[in-house]
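Propose amino acids for all 224 sites.
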């Protein structure tokens, strides 16, 4: 009985040694597979949320960010030129109050941010420039999305673009104060959408590691 006990212990030790030796290679395969799946989904989400949609105009951005000022306020805050004074006087005689100086549509002025002398300032958006694209799409964000395998147990997805994090977090409460009608949380969405697939990949890898070199059957300790 003693010899049999020793023999059984030796078999158990040998089996678990095989499992331990096979764990890291199986995890390496699983980590690369899982990382690539999340990476592919992240690029898909980025394409759908950003590149498949038309580039907004300066007017779209101004409305989205609430960059709208009252023309009456702007005019009276800075003073009037001669033509505006004449129009003001004419409307004042006609209406008896400044409210008639502009129609409601005329009184809403869309603004845009520009950089002047190293400072960001708001300036009125002309009708001509309002229809211009807010930016020129280069595809840099998409090209800058990469993945890297750090170890058999760790893979990461990262983006080299310096504005990637700000664009990804745009519209997320607690991370961005700016509102947007164009959210693109591609990384978060990718993780959520691939969660079950990633779990299945690692579950399969663990089973393969445990069953390494073992014939599955009664009393073998393998997993079906």
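Proposal:
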């Amino acid at each position: 009985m003693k010899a049999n006990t020793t023999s059984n212990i030796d078999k158990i030790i040998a089996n678990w040694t095989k499992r331990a030796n096979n764990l890291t290679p199986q995890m390496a395969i699983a980590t690369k597979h899982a990382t690539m799946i999340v990476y592919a989904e992240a690029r898909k989400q980025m394409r759908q949320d950003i590149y498949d949609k038309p580039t907004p105009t300066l007017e779209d951005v101004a409305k989205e960010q609430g960059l709208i000022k009252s023309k009456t306020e702007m005019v009276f805050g800075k003073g009037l030129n001669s033509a505006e004074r004449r129009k003001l006087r004419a409307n004042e005689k006609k209406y008896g109050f400044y409210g008639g100086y502009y129609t409601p549509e005329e009184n809403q002025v869309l603004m845009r941010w520009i950089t002047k002398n190293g400072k960001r300032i708001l300036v009125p958006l002309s009708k001509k420039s309002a229809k211009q694209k807010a930016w020129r799409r280069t595809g840099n964000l998409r090209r800058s999305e990469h993945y890297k395998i750090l170890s058999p147990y760790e893979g990461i997805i990262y983006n080299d673009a310096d504005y990637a994090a700000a664009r990804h977090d745009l519209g997320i409460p607690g991370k961005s104060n700016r509102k947007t009608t164009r959210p693109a949380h591609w990384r978060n969405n990718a993780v959520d959408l691939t969660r079950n697939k990633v779990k299945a990949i690692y579950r399969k890898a663990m089973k393969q590691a445990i069953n390494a070199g073992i014939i599955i059957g009664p009393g073998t300790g393998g997993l079906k």
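The chain has two domains: 15-55+136-210, 59-130. The mean pLDDT is 82.
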